Structures are given as structure tokens and as C-alpha cells.
Amino acid sequence: MDTLADWQRRFIAAMRDPATGTEADLGQPDGLAVYRNNIRQSLIEALATAFPHTRTLLGERYFAAAAGDYARERPPAEPRLMHYGDGFADFLDTLPPLADHRYVSDICRLERARLDISHAAEAPALEAARLAEHPAPEGLVLVPRPATRLVICRHDVAALWQRLEDGDDPLPPGSAGDWPWLAVRQEGRASLTPVSPFTRRLHERLDGTAVLGEALMISPEAGDDAAAGEALGTLLGLGALGVPGEPTAEDTP
Amino acid sequence: MPFPLANGAVGIGLKHRHAEALLAEPQPVDFLELHAENYMGAGGPVKERLHAIARAYPLSVHGVGMSLGGAERPDASHLARLVGLVEELNPALVSEHLAWSRLDDDFYNDLLPVPLTEESLALVARNVDIVQQALGRRLLIENPSLYVRLEMNTLDEADFLTELVARTGCGLLLDINNAYISAHNLGRDLDAYLAALPGHAVGEFHLAGHSLDTAASPPLRIDDHGGPVCDDVWALYARLARQHPAVPTLIEWDTRVPSLDRWVEEAERARAERSLPVATAVGE
Fold it and tell me: Could you tell me if residue A177 is left (phi over 0), alpha (psi between -120 and 50 degrees) or otherwise beta?
């Protein structure tokens, strides 16, 4: 007789592929189909809840098919479905019918970022006035707050995103290229904002290893101090930076 | 100390969409039950609202992802998160399922059936022990709704649960709807099953609606928690609640979730049913 672990492996094989679930000791076919459907349908629904705008763009039927394929190929690694689908945008990029519609995965990444920041740990935001009062701010090591995500879109989807947010009919995306966005939750409210390339680079450099003075040297060859200062102002204004010297909680316990 | 539950308390599930109304004015429910995994984020508005609700209502924390019925030990990270949530909320009840959902680092989002063998019993008892030790409190284990008969079973489910209670000191969450569904789907004698359960260990009742899949052959009752409790289950409940008058009752409703008022109505019916004259057993 199988050990429990061996039997479970055969049961899961039957969940993944009905053709393999023919052994009588796994259970009756119609009953097995209930479990198979529960697993698949609950994950499709979890993805639909996480990515409503992506679903709008793809249409209900195509979204369900793509989400079902994703669920079969990449089951969750853990029971917190709020974190499920972190690779869904990359998965959409592999689908040939979407080859000419890559902006869909841009929208998907923005939705994922919004969901991630909504569940991230609390941490106080560094206020510009507090930084200005510091006697030597250039020596501080600043870090993004946990409830912050940088997303690089490959199309200008700002107008499209706004229409989706407003419940209006989608329109085609703008031009291709690197279009950085920052998703930030502050005081319970999530905001997603297109930012400049300078702001993106400063955010990337504030990784906990560089002091502010070094991080601000974004483009020394161009000597563009004004742009670097503006980028810092954007990050502070959005509440994207943590308070130096005050530990932030881990994103996941 | 957690909010104590009154004898015969009746509660409903906690859904995000009802949180504001629950906080705006006290609702006539004795407690709220939440699915642990939905509140295991690190922070944010959902967590903030949960803490506000925990200050206003007694809570029950109901886990759906610990995979106690699997061959593997409980996932350490998930267990730590459950311990953290229970410490945060100090709920009146903590429960999980006789089911499995994790294998080889993948999670399968359903409550899968456990073969009822001596090996499984030893492994489930080990897993329940681990969780109870980590929580420092008794866990209630819910009987499953089943869609397949497993040929490798060597124990009856009621005997399995009785022995699990004896070995671990856990309690029993008696889901009456699940018992009804499994009896139908497996051709089990429902009254004999209920009579064989360890009644002294029952720490909570669950009630829920279900649907009938007539396309299956034979038709299967599906535990979708998508409607009101059916009359047969109400009749069973009236009988069981009189046998266990102090045991709290939770009305589940997880799909096609109704308005808060409609859900509270269902809770009111539970109060009414348990005060009716003793009902005759289903099928008598």
C-alpha cells in the first residue's frame, strides 16, 4: 500500500491531469472533478480579484483561460492568496496572442504593485521638513518604505490607467519605452504615479547601502543637480522614503 | 483574555465588504469568524480595520491552509504567521480542518480528502500537536465535506476524529452541513456518524448552504457556502444544539455573499431553531 505521501502525489497528478487520475483508489471521477474544479476556479477568482483592470482589457473569457493556465503551471507557494499572481504579468508576456499588446502586462504590474503596497508593513514616511532640519542630510542612509514599489512600464499607460480607474472604455496606450511609476501607500491610501527617469534612478540607488550624498550623484557627467534635487523632492512628496534610524518592519512576517 | 463567548453564541463570517457597517453600529451577532489567511498581510488598511473589529466583537480565527492532513509537517512560516495573528487578536476560538492542501512546496487551494488510515491518524495527530504547542491553546478540527470514497480507508471518520481528540486533546468543530453533504455523497448513515462523534469535544457548530450538482452521476452535494442553510440541516442543528446548548454556532456564507442584514437574519434563525421543541431526526 502507498504511504500517505505517495498517495498524495498521485492525487495531485490527478488534479493536474484528469487522464492520469484513473486509479480507483483516488476516488470516483465526478468527485475528483469537484476538487479539480475547486482548485482551478478559486485561483482564477483570486487572480480576477487581484487584477480587475487586466481582466477588463483581456475580456472575461480570455482572462479566465490565461488565469487557468497560469494556475496550472504555477500553483501558489503558500496559502495567502493576497500574494498569489506575482508572476502573472511575466506569464502574460509569454502568450503569443498578446505579443502586440504588451501594455496589458504593464497594467497587470501596476495592479500587482497596488495590491502589494496595500498589505505591506507600516513605517513612518520621512518628511521633507525633517530632512531639511538635519545637520548633515547627505550622510544619511535612506531607504524606500515597505509600502512602496517601483514599476517600469514599457508603454506610456498613464491615460489608459486613468480611464480604467474611472470605469471608462479603454483606449490604446501611448508610446513604447521605459515609463517608471511609483506605487506608494500613505495613511491607508494607495497612489500610483508616473515618475521621471531621475526619480527612478534615485529610488533604485536608495537601497540601504548608499548615503544620500552618493545616491544623489545620479548623473555626475551631466552635472544635473537640479534634476536630482527634484527627484528627491518627488520621493519625499510621495512619502516613498523611510525615516533614517527608525527600523521598518519586514514586509512579510 | 479573549472576549468570552456567551453560551449558545451565534456568529457570522467577517467579510471586507461588511467591515464598515460592522464598525458603524453594533450588530446583533455574538462573534465574527475570519479566515486566517485573508488577514496575514504585514499591515495596511485591511489589518487596521481588523484590529478595530477585534476591539468591538469577539472573534474566531478559522484557518484554511495549515494542511494538517498532509504527510508533511506544518509549514513553519505559515504556522508563525498564524501564531502572530492569534496573539494579535486573542480570539475566543481557533480552528482548522481535517484536510490537506500542501505538497512539495506547492499549495493547492482546496480542502483535499485525507485517507483515513493509522498512518494518517499518526501524522495528523503529530501536526495538530505541533500547531497546538505553537499556539499554546486548543485547536478545533473541522470534519470535512467529501466528494470521493477512498478505498484505502481503514477507519471510519467518526472513529478517526474520536481518536484524534483522545491523542491530542483538540476539540471538534462540527460542521453540520459538511456532515450532511458527506453522508449524501458517500452514502453514509448520517445519524450513526453523528452518534459516533465525540460529543464532549464539540466546541463549535458550523452551518452553511450548499448546492446540488445534478450533472454528476450520481448527483453530488457541493459545499459552496453560497446560499441559505437548507431545511434538513436546520433540523439536524435544532437537535444537536439542544444536545450541546453551550456550543457556539457560526453561519458561513463565502460565495454570493449576502447583505449584512440578510446574514444576520440567518443568525437569528439559528437562535430560533435552537429554542424550538426537539426536532425529529432527518429521515425519521
Answer: left
Q: How confident is the model at residue B283 (pLDDT cuts 50, 70, 90)?
A: very low
Q: How far apart are CA A154 and CA A101, in angstroms?
A: 11
Residue of A nearest to B113 (CA): A35
Residue with cell 537640479: A226
pLDDT at residue A87 above 60? Answer: yes
Task: Verify whether the Cβ–Cβ distance B43 to A31 is below 8 Å.
Answer: no
CATH of B10-274, one of 3.40.50.20, 3.40.50.300, 3.20.20.150, 3.40.50.12780: 3.20.20.150
Q: State residue A18's pLDDT score.
A: 84
Burial tier of B135 (Cβ tally within 10 Å: 0-12, 13-18, 19+):
middle
Output the nine-digit C-alpha cell for A64: 479566465
Q: Which residue of A has its CA nearest to B43?
A: A121
* Pair A186, A94 in one domain: no
Rounded CA-CA distance B140/B71 in Å is 20
Question: Is A10 among the domain residues?
Answer: yes
In this prediction, what percent of chain B has a pLDDT beyond 70?
A: 96
B41 in reach of chain A (CB within 8 A):
yes
Instruction: Give the β-pairing of B249-251 and B10-13.
Output: parallel
Considering only alpha carbons, which residue of chain A is nearest residue B64?
A79
8 Å CB contact between B138 and B171 = yes
The shortest C-alpha distance from B242 to chain A (Å) reads 34
Residue at grid coordinates 512546496: B105
Residues A146 and A51 in one domain: no
Contact by Cβ (8 Å): A252, B42: yes
User: Looking at the 3D structure of chain A, how many domains does it have?
Assistant: 2
Residue A219 pLDDT greater than 90, yes or no: no
Tell me which DSSP letter residue A218 carries: S
Grade residue B1 by pLDDT with cuts at 50, 70 and 90.
Answer: low
Q: In which region does residue B256 sit, left (phi positive, over 0), alpha (psi from -120 to 50) or beta (all else)?
A: left
B122 interface with A at CB cutoff 8 Å: no
Q: Domain range holding A244?
A: 123-253
Chain centroid to CA A225: 31
A1 grid coordinates: 500500500
Per-residue model confidence as pLDDT tens digits over B165-179: 999 999 999 999 999
Q: Do B44 and A185 touch (CB under 8 A)?
A: yes
Of A8, A120, A146, the CB nearest to B103: A8
Mean local confidence (pLDDT), B96-102: 98
Distance from CA of A89 to the nearest CA of B (A): 20
